[in-house]
Amino acid sequence: MKVKTILVSQPKPQTEKSPYFDLAKKCKVKIDFRPFIHVEGVSAKEFRKQKITIKDFDSVIFTSKSAVDHFFRLAEELRCDVPESMKYFCVSESIAYYLQKYVVYRKRKIFHGQTRFTEILETIKKHKDGKFLLPCSDVAKPDVPKMLADNGIDFKEAVMYRTVCSDLSDLKDVYYDILVFFSPSGIKSLLQNFPDFKQNNTRIAVFGSSTAKAAEENGLRIDIAAPSPQAPSMTMALEQYITKVNKQSRSKKAS
């Protein structure tokens, strides 16, 4: 069946240069964006139950902007003055610059990688004598803690926020040709909001092995998967699929 509509289970891109907008124009499809999940902060009372004191650490590892927001939120709620000597290790440059929202950037010891955790890990290893705090969500991926442990880093995970399914009830009677997912939580949200969901002709696109596994475990048929050698990004995978399917649809009509 020809693809005309796509729902991406993420917030709408803030920049007009997003490859999704290029995809919509090139393939002449309608693309909507809707977060299937959202983040809620852990309360100060809940955090205290973890028996973690921020001042016991001299370094913080940030893997997302949400981690930055909730680290400083909790520090304020707990009336904990974060020492100026605190070192910050960020997975990407954008996360590092995001710290300017809370600290005077040029007066802090801030380190960052490009996009992958392995890049900042090399820098962390050079500060191996430090005590590292790793702010994370309740559904944090195990790969980062494993890499830190494997390299003998003294660290502690601190759950500071949780991933929650969003209310999608307004989409009950809305149909899309393709639904795009990026995490197991997105799959969970779909089935929690629509327990009677039947895939039928809806195509499912997934990014990452853990998302694919969640889809398969819940009986969903995966039609588009990324990354792959042929399609390292989701937009590339979508474009290749849409081009092929829509071409076949036109050929059938012509015959």
Question: What can you tell me about this protein's structure?
Answer:
The chain is of the alpha/beta class and 255 residues long. The chain has a domain at 40-163: Rossmann fold (3-Layer(aba) Sandwich), CATH 3.40.50.10090. The protein has nine helices and eleven strands. The protein has helices at residues 19-27, 44-48, 65-77, 93-98, 117-125, 143-150, 184-193, 209-217, 234-254; strands at 5-8, 30-33, 37-41, 59-62, 87-90, 109-112, 132-137, 155-165, 178-181, 203-207, 222-226. The strands form two sheets. Strands 3-8-7-4-5-6 form a six-stranded mixed sheet. Strands 2-1-9-10-11 form a five-stranded parallel sheet, sandwiched between helices. Helix 1 (19-27) packs parallel to helix 9 (234-254) and helix 7 packs parallel to helix 8 (209-217). The two termini are 15 Å apart. The mean pLDDT is 94.
How is this structure best summarized?
The chain is an alpha/beta fold and 255 residues long. It contains 9 helices and 11 strands.
Q: From the 3D coordinates, which CATH architecture of the domain at 40-163 would you assign?
A: 3-Layer(aba) Sandwich
What would the average pLDDT be, to the nearest integer?
A: 94
Report the order of strands and helices: EHEEHEHEHEHEHEEHEHEH
Strand content: 15-25%
Q: What is the molecular shape?
A: elongated
Q: End-to-end distance, in Å?
A: 15 Å
Tally of helical segments:
9
Helix content: 25-40%
Instruction: Compute the number of strand runs.
Output: 11
Secondary-structure class: alpha/beta
Please report the first level of CATH classification, the CATH class of the domain at 40-163. Alpha Beta
